[in-house]
Amino acid sequence: MTVPVAQSRPIFPRLAADQRLYAGMLRYTVVFWSVGLLTLVQAIVIAILAFTRAPAGQLARMVAISWISIGVLQFVASILAGVWREQAGQGIMQLASFGVLGWIMGGLAIWAGAAHGLSGQPVVRAVSILGGVIIVLAMIGAVGVSLGLPRLVLPYTLPMLIAPNSISAQLYGSLAIYIPEETFGEQVTRLILFYPYTTALGLGGIGITLISVLEKDMRFRLLGMTGGLIAVVFSWSRLSLGALLLCALGWIWLRATFKLRLLFVFLALFVLFAISIVGFDWPAALMSIQDRIDGVRAGSSLARHLIYEKSWEGFLQSPIFGNGWIGPSVHPKEILPIGSHSTVYGLLYTGGVMTFAAFVVAITLTLASGVVRLLSEKSGRSDEVIVMLLLSLTLLFFCKYESLFSITLPCSYIFTFIGGALEPQRPMRSSADDADRFKRTRKLS
């Protein structure tokens, strides 16, 4: 007797959309990026996929809704703060800001990923090809550096022509391959590509590397992983490099057998015992490493600490619903607004305890759901769930130092993959099949 399996159901069966649409969007990333419309196209594709089919699994639904709720509560907080600050119009206008829409799009990406199986091989192949594109663009950047060009930026995209002074247009609508920045006390070229800033490229590179591990064809696997590693390394993001190392250790640990894990534990205990015997002060060594990391691009570290300090002060002034939106820049020339560069401090500043609590629930539910999926996985997709867990942990690792709402669209494949891996059963039919079935049903009726 065959046990019926719940299938995700179409919401608008006349609209034909499946994982081929998302994979195609990834394959044509360079085209959309070259005209400055990549972020807009990503938002449209995710919205279409999310509104054409609903996930079947309860875990994926709960996780997606929890991420959407962050944006909803942030909008409520913006309205309340606008009334409190006697700027109600400014509060309502936040509905169109990334501080609200970014969270909602992240949740919709998880929803769409679960509904359409966006962790399957077509999407994995497209992500691997995206890694290959990064290799080509990095080579172009290398030529530019060898020619002595300090930066390789082409600002003549549609958003930059329409709104050249808009910060959003500069971040999400410009075409830049690399930019200069001070690192180790000297100017270092940092790749940026089709991401709003270099740290986002590092996070995106981690996603490409991990997802490409699942590619069955060795050639495409190497292509994707190489491109992802290039993105991480040449973004010169300290956070991304550390997260990549932790992901590698996590991959080894989660795929190891029980006996091998015991061996790792005993080796770690032995090393700790040995360094204690010889009098090595390992806590002080860790603090020294942290100081050295902060010393890399010391100006950046100081700017972050100043932003965090001002954000905390703003939170204390309005702890329940926050200040509604990000504040002025802490630097007269650079874009360093209060409430930015951190999900933790940013949410506390802009949305208060109510919005920050929603984020804690969302990230906790995401990790817990991943653990449940891994423990209950019996369909041969354990590696896929492990990658999903590592991606979720990477988001947790980034949340203190980066504003996650600003990268949900540029790194949408991370969120769609999380949704796809959370769904125990991939949809057996595409939305095109659902549309045909809907038409046949109408004819019969």
Automatic annotation (TrEMBL):
The chain crosses the membrane at residues 30-51, 63-85, 91-114, 126-149, 191-214, 226-253, 260-280, 346-368, 380-398. It is found in: Membrane. Pfam families: Wzy_C. One of its GO terms (cellular component) is membrane. The keyword Signal does not apply. One of its GO terms (molecular function) is ligase activity. Residues 426-445 are annotated as: Disordered. This is O-antigen ligase family protein. It comes from Rhizobium grahamii. The lineage of its organism: Bacteria, Pseudomonadati, Pseudomonadota, Alphaproteobacteria, Hyphomicrobiales.
